[in-house]
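Board notes (copied after class):
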Amino acid sequence: MKKNVLVLLFVAATSVAMHAQSFGVKTGLSLAKITDDSSSKTRTGFVGGVYTNFNLGESFSIQPELLYSAQGSKFSSDGYNGKIIFDYLTLPIMFQYAVVDGLYLQAGPQIGFVVKDTTEVEGLGSIDTSDSLKLLGEKLNTFDFGFNFGAGYKTNFGLNFDARYNLGLNDIIKNVKGKNQVIQLTVGYDIVKPK
């Protein structure tokens, strides 16, 4: 099932990219934590992928993206330190509004699918998070829905800078309070530039 979804997302992204005004790659820093968990600390990770951009008018555009996003959190509990790794393949759809030349505000929904779920504890090694949740009678929610908002700047030569906040809207573990909370800082480059 997960492989079918990934193939479908790839085919859709390729098709969209062929009709876009611009197409590019982006990479950067992901600062993630889990809400409603007092032991949760920020996990620093990687975010990267591809994007396309379509002009909707003089000041508006829409930018679908396909990103790999390292999320989860670090924790410290009962003398143990570790990190909960929830890495996602995400599909944000950002609506952008140009405030002045180059500078834009953005907002939009995002869906994500878990591609890696591991818990690492210092001195104890790593375990599969979904397997450990089964022992506790809980289940990992492999689908994530969230909402992004932020701002960015596009240069005339194709380089762009983006800052956004992603607020997860559904719990990571079913029936347990705790949502994704992610800040992403990225640099992108238009491989195919707007005409």
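Comment from the instructor: The radius of gyration is 18 Å. The chain has a mean pLDDT of 84.
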